[in-house]
Design brief:
The protein has 278 residues and is mostly helical. The chain has 13 helices and no strands. It folds into two domains: 48 residues, no CATH class; 217 residues, MetI-like fold, CATH 1.10.3720.10.
Length: 278
């Protein structure tokens, strides 16, 4: 039977304090983004707006040129969704082969992918750029999808392989006895069971691709395919100290990926736990 003790009260108060600390930046973002140009300098940052306005969001969303936030948002969605789709397809197949193979090379390949996760991708920026430019992949959405997929594929393989190793082969053997091919077994039986791992790959890769600035600036700078972080960089660079507009564009950039995370957080936790077990 649960008893509410002084220790329970202390833990509850501690959790409330931690929650306030974590939510304070979001409160600050929203408060300043809703203030007008005069009020943002005339009132303390933590004071709620006396006359809330959405004009700052309107200014951000109607920007043109290199600061076009709407175009950057669309490009970020296309690049992120395309990269996730490629990583799920190739990562699941590769992870399945590595996990189910009994040959010696499979473990060696698995460790090579682990090394690729540890090494920073920035080490290969120059040769990657030279190769991408030679193939005509710079300044294009498709080029960024290929680039991000290659950079983050080792992470997807690591998660899927760990999860596959913890999955029994009973369903696969039963399907094989019923006459199903290896392709049918994988896509109709095995892959649906990997929904937690798929959610983990989608969230981790989505966060990395969506928030990436350095790679997008190098490979997309000055083109029409620039992503939201790059558009934010140009937009904020044109401002002096208009923090209400700066915070408004930060909120706009957070909404899509935050909504996606809240939608798939259960799968993320399950898949991460399964990958660690592997």
């Amino acid at each position: 039977m649960f008893r509410y003790t002084k220790g329970s009260l202390a833990r509850e108060i501690l959790f409330w304090i931690i929650a306030v600390i974590y939510l304070a930046p979001f409160y600050l973002l929203i408060t300043i983004a809703l203030k007008g140009d005069q009020e943002v300098f005339a009132t303390p940052a933590l004071q709620p707006p006396t006359a809330p306005t959405l004009d700052n969001f309107g200014r951000v969303l109607t920007a043109t040129g290199q600061s076009n936030v709407i175009q950057g948002l669309v490009n970020s969605v296309l690049i992120t969704a395309g990269s996730i789709a490629v990583m799920i397809l190739l990562g699941s197949v590769t992870g399945y082969v590595i996990a189910r193979s009994t040959r010696r090379w499979s473990r060696g390949v698995y460790y090579l992918f682990l090394i690729a996760i540890v090494l920073p991708a920035q080490l290969g920026t120059v040769p990657l750029y030279i190769g991408a430019r030679a193939l005509g992949l710079t300044g294009s959405v498709w080029g960024m999808i290929i680039l991000f997929s290659g950079m983050l594929l080792p992470l997807a393989i690591f998660i899927y392989a760990g999860f596959f190793r913890g999955l029994g082969t009973d369903f696969e053997e039963a399907a094989a006895i019923d006459g199903a091919s290896r392709t049918q077994i994988f896509f109709r039986i095995v892959l649906p069971l990997m929904a937690p791992a798929t959610g983990t790959v989608a969230i981790l890769a989505g966060l990395i691709v969506w928030n990436d600035f350095f790679t997008s600036l190098i490979f997309l700078g000055g083109s029409d395919a620039q992503t939201l972080p790059v558009a934010m960089y140009y937009y904020i660079g044109s401002l002096v100290s208009q923090w209400n507009q700066i915070f408004a564009i930060v909120i706009i950039s957070m909404i899509p990926i935050l909504a996606f995370y809240l939608f798939a957080q259960k799968r993320f936790i399950q898949g991460f736990a399964g990958g660690l077990k592997g």
